[in-house]
Amino acid sequence: MPAPRTVLLTGAAGGLGTLMRELLPGHGYDLRLLDVRPVEGAPDALTADLADPGALREAVRGVDAVIHLAGISLEAPFEKILTSNIRGTYHLYEAARAEGVGRIVFASSNHAVGFTPRPRGGDPLLPVTVPHRPDTFYGLSKAFGEDLAQFYWDKHGLETVSVRIGSCFPRPTRVRQLSLWLSPADCARLLHAALTAEGVGHTVVYGSSANTRLCWDLGPARALGYDPQDDSEPYAAELIAEQGEPDPGSEAHARLGGHFVTDPPIWPH
Hints:
The protein has about 270 residues and is of the alpha/beta class. It has one domain (about 5-260): NAD(P)-binding Rossmann-like Domain (Rossmann fold, 3-Layer(aba) Sandwich). The protein has eight helices and seven strands; from the N terminus they run βαββαβαβαβαβααα. Helix 2 packs across helix 3. It is globular. The relative contact order is 0.15.
């Protein structure tokens, strides 16, 4: 499909949103920014809450596509997750349907399948077809978002690419992230591919760079046209020296979600 011209970027003031609003214009996008708080350095950004259906309809009106990054990005009490990530995502999809937006790129997460066993040496890479096994209320909201996207495709013809993002930071900060790291530049490449690929219906992909320690299958993302350029391996020696190798016998190491399957974490994932 032709590259969308104007894209609504929700969550534009957040960590990932800040990175993407700097990188996506280089791929040819005119971004309309939205967040629940003012976006620093962007006086034209829209300030609106996902709980406000009317404001969301105005925000999506006239855009060619939406990149939905907004919501709570850490584990939190269920009521907060319910309001922001579950009801809020529904409000966004309903606004997009009502205004005739054709495609959404939904920021899902590896935590939607966090209780899935990690592949061991010699095992095939983890496919996107594994069942939802969320490891947190946050992961549960991302599983809901993927199912909501499927429903809006089947019922209303609204296309979505759901990207199960690993860990998108300028550099990995934990040993676990060596297999899941998505560099900001590769994230922008992946979002561009998700916006421009033809006939996606509802497609689920994993989102990481081409890491040497990759544990999941990037084939579906590559099928969209994604060509990752980065690898976490240059950071491996330093991280392992600081933090040590994971305990191979631990439950956290055995599951994709890492320590999120055993702890109630609040730190970045």
